[in-house]
Amino acid sequence: MVVVVLENHAYSQIIGSSSAPYINSLKTGGANLSASYAITHPSQPNYMALFSGSTQGITSDSCYTPGFSSAANLASELTSAGKTWGSYNETLPSQGSTTCSSGDYARKHNPWFGFSNVSTSSAHTFAQFPTDYNQLPQVSFVVPNLCSDMHDCSVGTGDTWLKNNLGAYATWAKTHNSLLLLTFDEDNSLSGNKITTVLYGQPVKAGSSSSTKYTHYNVLRTLEDMYGTSHAGQAAGASDITGIWAS
Predict the structure, then answer these.
(1) What is the structure's pLDDT at 130?
(2) What secondary structure, in 3-state letters, does 55-77 show?
(3) Model pTM?
(4) What confidence tier does 247 reach under pLDDT thresholds 50, 70, 90?
(5) How far apart are CA 217 and CA 239, in angstroms?
């Protein structure tokens, strides 16, 4: 399972857009959540919510003290369940670096650094993303930098980055019981926080969609239940994503 998070665009800016041909091809060949919503604004609390089922009291994009929380989260749950976890962060200066920013890198998009129960060494640079996908952890998060994630650069730039850097993995996922989940942290503050969430790979029914309202908490709950972990924060009360699975 590879989760990719892009930035600050509403559903209507991505789905059906000629600027995002690759993402729309993933939608066509995979599953589309047509009523997917972020939790709040700005960016940082949404990443916390997706990763830990709570915004952890974060209300801004300000740089916090690393390891400020010991709350349960996806990585700590996977580790406790004997599963493997890792993140791949574009332009992170070095593996495990807790710097707030560096060039186009921004730690506000990397929630794992907020938790004392997640090893900083599990945060890799994107250059360390394996070319042999069998070497990936069971669950990985990929966070592009501020240009590649559409925050500072265009939809087309982000779409091309995704195709060039994860297209081969997506193709592999179709025949290796693997799953690419693409979502956004939040919308452009103009669409009620409705965002794009697309799943692609062998476990999903190609061309399927769900109009059920889902949030970051439903995504987290679904990941937890896929791997038989406990449930963090508000994921405990969230439902699994349904209606899109091949079996």
Answers:
(1) 98
(2) CCCCCCCCCCCCCCECCCCHHHH
(3) 0.98
(4) confident
(5) 8
